[in-house]
Description:
The structure holds two protein chains of two kinds.
Chain A: E1 4-8, E2 13-20, E3 23-26, E4 36-37, E5 40-42, E6 48-50, H1 52-56, E7 65-66, H2 80-88, E8 92-95, E9 101-105, E10 108-111, H3 112-131, E11 137-142, H4 148-160, E12 164-170, H5 171-180, E13 187-194, E14 199-206, E15 211-220, H6 225-244, H7 252-268, E16 274-284, E17 290-298, H8 299-323, E18 333-337, H9 344-354, H10 367-380, E19 387-389, E20 396-400, E21 404-409, E22 417-424, E23 433-439, E24 449-456, E25 468-475, E26 481-487, E27 493-498, H11 506-554, H12 558-579, H13 583-607
Parallel strand pairs in A: 1-11, 11-12, 13-18, 15-19
Antiparallel strand pairs in A: 1-2, 2-3, 2-4, 5-6, 5-7, 8-9, 9-10, 13-14, 14-15, 16-17, 20-21, 20-23, 22-25, 23-24, 25-26, 26-27
Helix pairs in contact in A: 3-4, 5-10, 6-7, 6-8, 8-9, 11-12, 11-13, 12-13
Chain B: H1 2-7, E1 12-14, H2 27-35, H3 42-49, H4 53-66, E2 69-71, H5 78-84, H6 96-108, H7 114-118, H8 126-140, H9 153-171, H10 174-198, H11 204-227, H12 258-268, H13 283-328, H14 332-345, H15 350-380, H16 384-397, H17 401-414, H18 418-431, H19 436-448, H20 452-465, H21 470-483
Antiparallel strand pairs in B: 1-2
Amino acid sequence: METVIGIDLGTTNSCVAVMDSAVPTVIPNRGGYKTTPSMVAVTEAGKRLVGHIAKRQAITNAENTVYAAKRLIGRKWNSPQIKNALLTSSYNIAEGPHDDVRIVLRDKSYSVPEISSMILQEMKIIAEDYLGQPVTQAVVTVPAYFNDNQRQATKDAGTIAGLDVIRIINEPTAAALAYGLGKEIDRVIAVYDLGGGTFDISILELSSTGVFKVIATTGDTFLGGEDFDARIVDWLVHGFQQEHEIDLRQDRMALQRLRDAAEKAKCELSSVRETDINLPFIISTGRNEALHLQRTLTRETLEGLTEDLIERTIEICRDALGDARLEPKDLEDVILVGGMTRMPAIQKAATEYFGRTPNKGVHPDEVVALGAAIQGHALIEDKNDMILLDVTPHALGIMTFGSHFEELIPQNTTVPTSRTKVFTTSRDNQTAVKILVMQGENDNAEKNELLGEFILTGLRRATKGEIEIEVTFEINTDGIVSVFAKDLETGQAQSIQVTATSGLTQDEIHHMIETAKDYLVERRTDEDFEAAKQEAETLIAEIERLFPEVEGVVGSSDFGQDALGKARTVLEHAREAIEARGAAQIRQHVDGLARTQRMFKGVVSRAQ
Amino acid sequence: MSAKSKLAPAIYQRVDIVDVRTLPLDPEEAFVLSQVDGKSHEGAIALATGLELDRVAGHLRRLATLGAVHNASESPRSATHIRWSSQLDESLSIDADLQVRILEISSQLSELDHFQLLGVKMTADRSTIKRAYFSMIGVFHPDTYFGKRLGEFTKRMEKIFQRLTEAHDILSDPKARAEYEGYLAALGRTRGLEDLTADAPTSVEDLEQLLQQAEEEQAQKKQAEAIIAASPRVALKPPPLPSPKESRHPVVEMVDDPQSRRQGLARKLGLTGPSSSPAEPDEDALRDQAARRSAAVKDLHRRYKHRKGAIRDQRVERFATAAEEALAAGNTVSALNTLKIARTLSGGDIATVERLEELEKQVGATVADSYLERARYEETNGRYEDAARSYTRAARGRPSSDVLRSAAECYLKAGVELRLAGELAREAVQIAPNRIDLRLTLAKIYEAAGMQQSAIRELERALELTPDSDRIKQWLKRIKRQGV
């Protein structure tokens, strides 16, 4: 049976897991880490770096290192979130051709799904290395509060990475799966998920029959660990400005160092009460005088800086429980997910609000990927005895006359589902209606997300209100939204399958898949080449080291001269192969080099 | 299963939906088919038809292949299998049994209430409902068969799933469940009324039958009431009214059945017995006898008519009382049912008609409450068109400007029947001409229907009632601007 991997594509870190003989297992990367930074960089030499290597060079290459791309995925260029990102990002963000966002790295422009695909590809390779076989199918998680455009963009990223994303599932739901697997319990739980970039709260009902039913879910896609870091950065920048009257934000490298230091300090404060932030030579003044940043951050100060963020998460929890028509006391367990939940103030706030100590049995960084792997495995298994019932995180509807948003499928409706409503024409003699499919909760349609549009034509000319149009929304098991419009008089119908706009056209995605493939080949050969080159170069160096000595011993005889000439040829060919960057060619010469080296060694040892 | 059928003689059942006239049968097969009643086994049919057992068994097998009968001693599902055979798809990766189950439930989705759908009793507690729901999800959620070929069945399963989830979500929320139960009760009561109007008795025969049924029902009800006197609970579904084709019991004696009437007359006139032996009667005697007989017939006829009238009056009285009792007991369907019978029986007696009309009004008022309850539920669940209809019916039972307005507003929300909505709103305005909100509703409907002038007129009248309203002024301004 083919293996399906589960990928938690996080804002700051990503994680991949697989079902290994019925046990969900997180796969460590080559460095031995269970999570990989969601960072992508392009070096001066045009080399792509993903994960830890990208993170390590982020300070010196801040302008060409992308972090937190998840915050940009599936967003429109004109959205407030992008405006905000433009102000704070150390990399360059530009407008794309379809009101989407592009990231410019060394003069080359990348779409956000492309950047995410590089991370997914890395996770795919980690899994393939571990499993020793190719992987083509994956379940990828997204924040529960992601809209359809963001989900579609994530799916596109998977496609570009050469993965068939068989299902996109919500992060808190995945966490609940990992929590409930094999427990066979009937229980109502809450999953509080504060990740690097997003906050989600989901209320679920677990059934001993293997059904996981989401009752309500809500969240904020712009509230996460990054915002906590930003508060610390602000605090540092502000303090520095007061002291030196220099705005560190103007210097990209300084900003990147501050961000790193802030994240590190935040993490440390989860276990210690205070920490020193030391950034020597943070910036130099106009008079070539270096300035240092040195401050002590206490846990209390951090809690003071981020109090409102924590309070905001609790408010969202309150909304979710309200939607589920439950009280905190109705919950039988609370799971904390995401690295941010290690912060004592968050644990305290959650304990206070839910009136119970959160469950300590799940690993906040790994549980989501594990859940994704479980779902993937359950889906392709012949006898699937685990069913996940998730809900629509946002309402779906159409725009009516006067920019009014008319909801058809409410928030928190269990999918699959369908709803129908009858609408009428808004003008006299109107012969066509435009159906604008939207997602969101705002009564003002323009404030919601446009998912797609189509036109129903051929209506009879009549006074307004006379022609009736029946609109049906349908969300199927795979989460695909279809909208049908029917002229009730003529029975004429139109429909679309809403392929949410990820900001990429099918052609573009196709092209990116091709590029990603090329890149994959290039990269694999690269690795091969590096290894071969290293092996060959070691041998060459050894031979060259021994050469004068050998020459001294055998150079006098014709036979010796002949041998030395052959050795030179071997070396020359090997160097040519290295020059040509062909791993296979190098390997052809490694044997010759090894033999020459053995021979030389023999000569030298005999001579002594 | 075949081993079992060898042990016990096969019992066959007719498949009702098959029209036997369309089948290629020979007379003997048809004869055998006529004896199939779901109870008699092959041997019994052989005895009844006088045919050999083997022959009968052969015919039955052929009839089963044709789909006219099915072996009731075999799987009970085979009948439904036959019913759905045309829609089964062998190329799919789910088996025929499951396909039949899906088709069967799909076809009943609109009829089953939430309890029936989940297969639980109305008294089932929350955990029973959850158990039923979660176990059904395992069967009907498409993910159970992920990656398998499901064809059209994916959609069907999704529909079933949606209904199951709706049922679960409503029944596991105490407030929503109470509302739903109230709705079911109201639906039961009002649906009974709709059935009644749909099947109004047309002929005397139907009426007599209805009458008898009603009497039986009353008697049964009395009995039932005596048993469950402690907690009178409204039946969710009213006892179905007999369809005219159903069990035609011999009706009351005095109907215009010539045969029985003649016999009865003969008995009364003493024409039976020895004297009737054919003698050689003289002409006068014969004429005399004829005259006497004619007078007697006339007399009898008069007496019969009188008695019939007396009985009828008695019955009208009885039904009217029954209707009053039913009304007092809160069983409006039954009240209206009996009332209808009484009315048809009464002929045109003014006092009776008046009394019945008064009663009808009372029944209407009670029914209005049920409709109102139903309408509110439908409205809160976004079924505006249904709600509009229920509100209208409620208003018919007990005219109220508020209810009329709700009906009109619901039609407007549903975006259908704007003309009707206008009529209802106008009616509401007539009841309470000084209420501004009613006029505004009417104006809104006029506007939606594109009748700007009428909307303006209505708004101006509203403005007369409340000259300072900025809202109305602005509204007027807006419409007038659009008009230009």
